[in-house]
Batch of 3 targets.
Target 1
Amino acid sequence: MKISTIKDLLDAKVICCEEGLSRHVYSACGSDMMSDVLAYVKDQAVLLTGLVNSQVIRTAEMMDMNCIVFVRSKMPTAEMIELAKENGMIILSTEKRMYEACGLLYSNGLVGNRVKNV
Amino acid sequence: MSEALKFHFDVDGDDFTSAGKASVQVKKNLRQLGLSPETIRRVSIAMYEGEINMVIHAGGGIADVTVTEDCIEILLSDKGPGIKDIDKAMQEGYSTASDNIRSLGFGAGMGLPNMKRYTDYMDIKSTVGVGTDITMRVNI
């Protein structure tokens, strides 16, 4: 799924790295616990979270993810945006809650079935 | 690569925001060495979890990463409270972290199991009241 499609489906604002919106993601992960995110490697995934701190950006970077969606209108801090820009990480923010945001992406084909244990 | 490459980091225990900086740097260094993305990902996730653990449980510590022809070795050493029951700590979901740490997105009891999951070898030496030394290796 194109990241621009995710933006449209979630009616999300682009916070940074807009130039990457044409990139694709093939799976998604929704969690506020970063260690749960770190437990499974997915290829080119998007992270949906309601957690706002620098470790969200670092976790996504460690996982080679290329897009983070903050749900429930959460906004990253200036420091987080700087970290994200350094890595070309696309940041979106949506008013939708986690359950609805995940459901919309799933029902539109981002099923996250490429999960693999390393 | 004839000689082993070594990287040393001091992990600051007072600043949760900067936790993970050493792992980010290691990831960059390994990329420059041209290692496979999967190897890099395994090393950096394992080290990142270890680094976070040192910050939230042990007040920081040191990290030494050695790259040889065969493997990448990560040594994490702290002078924190030590791990009372290592077998328990290795169980997924078991955590002694405070609610405050959980509100920061960690303390799900996945740190040590993740470190084991992503590495080919892991050894924990810990003494209560003295500190913890963790050795991890990822084969290249």
Target 2
Amino acid sequence: MVNQQAALLKPETLIDEFKKIGVTHIVTIPDSETNYLYELMQEQDWLSVVPASREGETFAIALGLSVGGKVPVCLIQNTGMMESGDSIRGMALDAGFPLLMVVGYRGWNRHGVITDTAAQYTEPFLNAMGVNYYLVETDEDAERISIAYEEAKKNKRPVAILVGDEYHGFNRV
Amino acid sequence: MINADDMFRAFEPHREDAVVIVTGTAGKHWADHTTKQNRDLNMGGAMGHTTSAALGLALGLPDEKVVLFDSEGSLLMNLGIIATISGQAPKNFLHLLMDNECYATTGGQPVPNAQDINYAGMAKEAGYTAAYSFDNIEDFATNIGNIMQETGPVFVAMKIVPEVENEPIGQRTRRPTRSRAETIRTLREELGIS
């Protein structure tokens, strides 16, 4: 049980990574699985949370923030990411700005057969868009968030973090 | 209905130092009236998300007035943005809608419920601080100066004369336009953003 708890990705860890990177804005669609993270983000005085109405908005809002010199992150679920295809093309890939996408990997599982099509199509979608990605499952993977952002800055492109523990660590247990 | 060229002519004296973003077929006329190109921004487009990008800019530049000339076909693709804008309530944001009741770039097909929809009503009910509708240049010209001084987000719906393009895209006359990258670079230089 102790080992199982230790293997979680804590929302506080994501907050720490965001602060280390210098993130100023989280542009997001809240969902039930990430509510505790959402509450934590709201408590940070150095961080502005921008709730959007649809995931495609988040990439365009992030572009506007980037033009203004801010450091936004798009925090969405894989289903919404796929809905955002043309926004990722037109407002992220074509715009030439670094952008970190933190994407809840709904349906992903390291064990057994993945049956949720949201998970089945996530990595093929990112590959088709030419967006590199890193899987983050536990606190031990957290440094990948900084690595991904450095890559985004270097290449002036979006880079995705796939949060593979969406149904555990993001929620108050 | 309002001629877009006349509308931009009436707006320009009230612009002051606002950052201006234009979209749609009618937006091309702004290039004939602007006197501060370094503060004109081409945010590109992606199925209606220029509006979202303008909101992001207003949030990123809270000390600058941000003025968006949107189009109704674009707004309809992402109508939820009016709730997002209202939720963020950027005081520095003026959202003008050029409503020509059609998709002018694809031959003039009507947008859904083109003649009866009330965009200003939706914006006001969504939570904009104020919303106006104009269908003649005289009223627009009389009011735009005061509207520019109001605390945002303010919404202005305007009925605009459609300029329908029927030529195949490859045969259309193209005006020289500044690229998104160029306008972003010059705006950031103007504002001292590294």
Target 3
Amino acid sequence: MKVQLREPKFVMKLSKLGSFHQTKLSFLRSFLNEFKDWKYKRDLFDLDEYGYGRAVYSFQKKKRIYSLVCFANKINDDERSDRVIATKWDAAFTLHDGIPTKLDLDRLSENVPKQEVGRVSYKELTLSRANKSLRIFEHVVESLSNGVQPDKNILSKVGYLYRTTAVYGSGKFGLADRFRIKNRKEINGPFRLEMMLVYLVRQFTFDQVNHIAKNKNPKKAVELDPDICRNLGIGNSTGLGMAPFIVNHPTLLNNWILAKETVLKKIREIKNVDPKELELFRNCLIKSQKNIENWKTESEFQIKKINELKIDLEKFSKYLNNQLDINKEYLFNDIYNWAENNLTDEGIEYIVSLMMEPYDNIVKPMINEMSSDEDEYFEIPTSRTIQELRNILENNYSEILKIDFSDKQSNQNFWFISKNKEEPRLADRYLQKGSELEQPLAIARDIKRLYQKISNEKNSSSVGNFLIKNSELRHVVRRAFIVEKFPYAEIQDNIIGSKLIPIDMLRLKLSFFGANKFDPRSDKWLRICMFQGAPLPNELNSFSEQWIYNSLN
Amino acid sequence: MKSYSEIDTTVKRASKAIGFSWGDSEEIGKCIRLLEMLGISGVRNLNSYFKVYNKQKFQNINLISKDNSSSIPYCPISAGLNFLNQISHMEELSEISISNIAYPVLLIPFISRASYISGKKILLKIDGQNLLLNFNQSIYSNFSGKDVLEKSKSINIKFLENVNLFSEDEWKELYKLSEDTFVEESDELKEVAAGAGLTDND
């Protein structure tokens, strides 16, 4: 039986994309699999009694070494901010290519703590900073220094000791350009070095908290229990900076979504599902339901979604236990169809994630397909005709062409770059100033303009001739030809409309990172947790593939 | 050192700020990045051009013909963009000349990309200095590329036919040498070492 890929106009709606969950394809999970046979080492740990100083951690395989360089600094409580306008952080990090020399460390100590206003070099690969979760960090130090383990209930409310507030890569602030390293096999997956940085930062937070507790009370202090460590992740506070990424990298977005959709299709096409595979799926469902109980948020938007998910999973469990005929062929196709007909987007996408768990053989080959050499698709085929362009627009943007942009609400917002921090922002076109400096992210509006404009052109005329007179539409002409080859490259929604929920865009990207426990703090920023439940670095050579469902159970 | 990613992004934004469309600005960002990677000073030339861009008059070339001349200096970016827009027509012209173009260095990356798109090498002459553009992979040139060049009197662009740079005899000599890696086939080897039989009539 052949199952069709889900259609882009169904999958690429923001409400759908904003309901995605982590999967086996997620970057932090594929990172751990790729680096499980690398040698982990703490090379330097030079902190004072209060935990301030520098540390270096590394992963090594043969001659290749990646080193995380950490700088922990004293800051006042009133200086601690998750916003990108902050200028001081509890700790700052960079991933260095190779072993840093003393000169490198001195150079980095002058620059890494400054983050955006410092400069790093082509020898550095990623850059980040993080702040302590004060309520958790102090509780853990206090407990350990008194010889007792921290209260797991308190820990479960947050899930991490530190949260990062930005992770930069690919040439920013002088970091290595992607082309310098793109042929390395071990990083042939998106954001793999960013994942490495975050993972090693997690270990630094455990080492730091143990170190401070030990110095506070050398005779009585105990170390944080490895089981508790394993169940702590790294938080991340993310705002709009992440949202334009998925618009600005259409081929990459396509490859992420296509990988997910291809895996789903292949699983639905399995004729005879092995009972062991069904059992693994069932176990993951049961374990993951406990995770959902620990998904805390004050966001009414998210609380509603979590409640819907809980109801969905109760319904689904009943279906799985009472209605599903497990002797039927194409079992997962039945499961998927039932989910699509009976559950919300949250529930459907959750089941899709769980369906992947038994199928390493299907998932792993797709992981290598999730990068993209974007420059290859930059050129516009200017000799193509207007008729061809029109066909592409009608075939790939049918939902967008239905949007009425004469309606004020369809144009409500505009995206801009803030002058003080060079970060993307979203504002109301009719209330705030600056729309004349709008970023080229209003793809739906501009695609519709393009469609209207070419209606007056001769079908046989070339796209090149059209561009001579209409250069203001060049950016969307390029996109149209990209979408022709990459059907999942475009969000099939209006991201300047009044109904936009920007965190849907963030959640899409973060789900591919492998984040969970999405905790929106407004419609424009959220907190998440990464690597919660993940093996510790010294456990990487042997760990459960389903570790993500084991946190705090 | 600025990364190439930073150069691309900053040039794109600066180009939009000076008055180009976003789509054109994306092209300019990629082109200046390319120049810098090839060791030609793109940022310096672009910066100099942008300083005068809104103060002086520059002529846009829309439809490029075999011979193009203007008393007002041509805009190199408009010329480059429209060269790409009309690439199939440009190939038909085979050889194109443009007189009086401002900041000609900025035209180079567009023509280099045209070489890749057309699949042909292009010989670009800027006031007598030669640049051989090799499918956007490299540039062979006697042009230093370090300075700002404010104007060029004459530019000539020639699509080169895909021909080898060596003679048939030179090729044969080399091929003969390569044959020394082959095994002479005996009758027995002819029978057993290939998949099909010696006669395959059916």
